[in-house]
Amino acid sequence: MKYIIDLIEDIRTEIKNNAEYTITAMLLKDDLENAEKLIYSGETALANFDLDHKEKKLSFTIKQESKALLVGDLVKHLLILDMDAMMYPIEVAVNQQYQDVAVIGFGKSIEDNKYILFIKI
Fold this sequence. Notes:
The structure is a single chain. This protein is of the alpha/beta class. The chain has three helices and seven strands. It has helices at residues 4-15, 71-78, 83-86; strands spanning 22-30, 38-45, 48-52, 57-61, 90-93, 101-109, 114-120. A seven-stranded mixed beta sheet has the order 2-1-7-6-5-4-3. Strand 1 and strand 2 (38-45) form a beta hairpin. The protein is globular.
């Protein structure tokens, strides 16, 4: 599980806070033949986010018809948080069945200007 503070630090170090990167979720699943491996199972752009202080979490949502969320649109809201909020976990609402999927890692695609949140179901 990753936290907001991890996200802020990774965006700063890996893509230098480049505001033009789109934020994408990449789905990974267990490899049935090798328990130590994960298999790429698809990806999609994330459309928006909700910083829920009541539930103490940062949630991203997927909406196929919506414009992709940009790093610049997210980071400006995260950098002003207090230390308690920076410790909120990060989740992705994939669909009705998988509402609170924890983010397990981060990545980037320089060629595609994508910042990636890895999730596992």
